[in-house]
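ENTRY TYPE: paired fold submission
RECORD: A
CONTENT: sequence, then structure tokens
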Amino acid sequence: MKRYYVLVLLIFFTLLSGCGSESTSQPSVPPGVTSVEIAYLNHSPVKPVLTQVDDLLKQYGDRVQVSRYDFGTPEGETFAQDRDLTIHTPLAIFIDGSMEATIGDRTVKFYSFPQGQGTGVVDSGAWTIDDLRQALDEAVKNKS
């Protein structure tokens, strides 16, 4: 009987050790596939930008694996915390784990709204949908 209790306790502590704060580290991505993680506020000013991003991502088919994190969900909050993002960030896009990409001779950060699409409350970032396209083209090319 004592062995039974020890076994139960061992199983309990093993399961317990797997609980707790989990990191939303980069999801498992098949070889040759580019990871795209999108964290966003699920508010109306962000939705048109997400539509533009989605339209672009569709062009890459199965060469990209997209994960989405709504800041208003527990998963989104954990993702934001892991990536040092504030909840007031309208949009952040990570390509293969990085929010920055080198395009030509400049570094672009896919953070906040694209240029010219900010709101009166939140400024636009220093990137464009074309910048995102170029960064994705490069990332996909490097995986082939």
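RECORD: B
CONTENT: sequence, then structure tokens
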Amino acid sequence: MPRAAYQVVLLLSVVATLTGCKFYWSKLGGTAADFNRDSLECVKESSPTAEAAKYGIPSEKIYKACLRQRGWVRENGPGGDGYFRGIEDFE
């Protein structure tokens, strides 16, 4: 592979990695305060014990289901206003 082609492929790989597939939560009319409140409540509901909830260690499936039940939608998005990152570090 010629050097220039290799550099283009490498550059595209780096850009794809940096922009990556990040998932965000959004809700029509939802604010950061709304998301933070709901996320904290969902951590409590999804944690196996009260001690685990203090450290934000939830069950991924229960945490996501809880937020969905509260009207939040998880999608691959650009971030920014109206999009919030949950505590999950799964993707």
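NOTES ON RECORD B: The longest strand covers residues 23-26. The radius of gyration is 18 Å.
STATUS: closed
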